[in-house]
Amino acid sequence: MEGIPPDEVLVARLRSGEESAFALLLDSWSGGMLRLARSFVSTEESAAEVVQETWLAVIEGIDRFEGRSSLKTWIYRILTNQAKRRGVREHKVVPVSSIQTGSSAEGSLDDTGPTVDPARFRPAGDPYPGHWWEFPASWPTPEQGLLGGEARILLSQALVELPERQRAVIVLRDVEGYSSDEVCDLLEISQGNQRVLLHRARAFLRGKLEEYYKEAKP
Amino acid sequence: MTDLDCQEFVEQVTAFLEGGLDPAEEQRFVDHLALCDGCDRYLDQVRQTVHALRELPKEALSPENRQALLNIFRARH
Ligand SMILES: [Zn+2]
Q1: What total of structural domains would you count in chain A?
Q2: Least crowded by CB within 10 Å, which of A20, A69, A204, B11?
Q3: Best mutation target, B10, B36, B54, to test chain A (most A CBs within 10 A)
């Protein structure tokens, strides 16, 4: 995100019609916006349309931007409002297949309960209650290629399976690299809430990779 | 304070990585980590998952959509 001037400078340039300033924003922020929009709507195409509508609203509305939030927050608010409205219109529902976490599936998709299958730990009454029955299996080291093309596709697909709030948080934090303060601001959630959503999403995705490596290495 | 068990450990991983544990909780977490290979591996795998997400290819506007927006921007001024 380097190279983006402070808001006052940026807004002045946009208002005076400086195309390079607008192009810089398009190229810096559209990627994160597309992924975030995808949390709310059914298809990639739909997400692209939401982003397009958002930028049109920015062009139309930049003269009315009052600077009460950062420019980025202002744009992301427009985006999430448009995306939510469209998501409702599309009756986006989470596919049933992703609600049922099979017995081997790690991570829980709602916002409460353990994130690792309790059956993997020794029960109360055992000499070591709450300890692993069996340690998680090791993964290939990064030199062996943690993220081959297949694992990359798997992660992208697993992201789509997450509930929208978890997906929005992990996309912004871990894929796009925003700070927790920025994410709380953009999504209007508390730090505590953000941490819970991030925790659940990370645990779910770790579980997906674990399953993948287990199958890849019988 | 009693020792942390593995089942509790895995639920504190994100709080630990975010620097959100208080000093006593963090000490328990680190103590457990030092003694438990399973949890050491679990934490490492969460870190690897985060790195893997960071490496996902960046998305971008299609060239047509990008050009269309630039045209509209230009026409407004
Ligand atoms: Zn342990």
Answers
A1: 2
A2: A20
A3: B10
Same-domain check for residues A79 and A102: no
Residues 6+ apart with CB under 8 A from A33: A51, A54, A75, A76, A79
- CB-nearest partner of B14 from A34, A152, A195: A195
Average pLDDT over residues A2-25: 93
Q: Are residues A60 and A102 in the same domain?
A: no
pLDDT of residue A89: 79
CA of residue B6 to ligand 1 center, whole Å = 4
CB contact A131 to B (< 8 Å): yes
By residue range, what is the domain housing residue B16?
Answer: 6-76
Q: Which residue of A has its CA nearest to B15?
A: A195
Span A169-198, pLDDT tens digits = 999 999 988 999 999 988 889 999 999 999
**CATH code: domain of residue B26:** 1.10.10
Q: Is B65:A26 a contact under the CB 8 Å cutoff?
A: no
Please give the residue range of the domain that contains residue A152.
98-216
Q: B8 at the A interface (CB within 8 A)?
A: yes
- Provide the domain count of chain B: 1
Name the residue among A26, A35, A147 with its Cβ closest to that of B61.
Answer: A26
A217 — pLDDT class (breaks 50, 70, 90): low
Q: How many helices (H) and strands (E) does chain A have?
A: 9, 0
How much distance in Å is there from the Cα of A125 to the middle of ligand 1? 17
Q: How much is the pLDDT for A143?
A: 58
| Distance (Å, whole) CA A197 – CA A78 | 22
CB A142 within 8 A of CB A132: no
Global pTM reads: 0.83
Does some domain include residue B42?
A: yes
Write down the pLDDT at residue A110. Answer: 60
